C-alpha cells in the first residue's frame, strides 16, 4: 500500500488534482491557529529501504525528498520555524559509507532548495545549521556555510538543520560560552540565567520554543534532541509512519489536530477572562455582595 502511494504522483493528471486538494486544505487550516515552530526527527529511512528491498542510500534519498514536501507544507501554512534532526553526533558510529551518503545527500538537497525558484526562494526561507561544526570535514563545512550565506537575507521563515547535533553537546557548548564570557569580564556572575543560556545555544536565542515535535517510525524516544527547547506546552508526536512516507497529508493532519486543540484552549482562556471581567464589574457595582458562597449548613447543625 505504501509503495502504491509512493508512485501515485506519476499518474497523468494526479499532480494537478492533488495540488488543488492541497491548496484547499491549506486554506482551511489557515483559518485557525498555526504553530510557530515544528521540529522533526526524521527516523525510518533505513527501515524503509529494508522493507522495500532498496539499497540503504535509496532509503536516505527518499527521506530527503520527503523533507522537501514536508517543508513546503509547513511554509505554505505559515509555520515560521522548522527544525530537522539531520544527523546526530552519535551517528558517527555508523559505517563510513552510510555517513558519507547522508553528508552528500544533505549537501545536494540544501543546494537544490536554495537555488533559484526553489523552496527557499519561493517561501523566503533562511537556512541555519545548528550543531558542532568541528566534527565536519572542511570541504563540507565550507559548502554548508556558503548555503547559509546565500539565504542570510531571507526573513519570512527559518529552517534549522541540526547537523551534527545532540542536546547534551548543545548545553555543553552554551555552558562553555558563558564561562568564557564570565572569564573575559563580558558578563557578571549574577547575569547568568535562563535567558542568557537561550542566547548561547546553537540556536542563538530563538524567539519561538517548539510547539510540535514529531518523531516518525514509531520509536518513542527523543534520542538526546531538543531537551531544552521543548517546554510544558510542547506536543510530542510518535507516528508509526516511516519518514519517507511522512509527507503533505501526514504533516497537515498533525497540524490540524494541534490547531483544533489549541483553539479549544484559547476559547477556554477567553471564557475565563470574561468571567473575571464580569465578576469585577459586579463587585464594582455592588460592593456589598459577597464574592464567595455562604458557609455550608445542615438541618442538624
Could you please describe the fold and organization of this structure?
- 50% of the residues lie in helices and 10% in strands.
- It contains ten helices and six strands.
- The protein has one domain (33-165, 202-298): 3-Layer(aba) Sandwich (Undecaprenyl pyrophosphate synthetase).
- Helix 3 (45-51) packs across helix 4 (56-77) and helix 4 packs parallel to helix 5.
- The model has no long low-confidence stretch (mean pLDDT 88).
- It is α/β, with parallel strands linked by helices and 301 residues long.
- Strands 3-4-2-1-5-6 form a six-stranded parallel β-sheet.
- It is globular, with a radius of gyration of 24 Å.
Any key phrases for this structure?
alpha/beta; Undecaprenyl pyrophosphate synthetase; six-stranded parallel sheet
Topology of helices and strands:
Elements: H1 2-7, H2 14-29, E1 37-41, H3 45-51, H4 56-77, E2 81-85, H5 96-113, H6 119-123, E3 125-130, H7 138-150, E4 157-162, H8 167-183, H9 194-200, E5 212-215, E6 235-237, H10 248-285
Parallel strand pairs: 1-2, 1-5, 2-4, 3-4, 5-6
Helix pairs in contact: 2-10, 3-4, 4-5, 5-7, 8-9
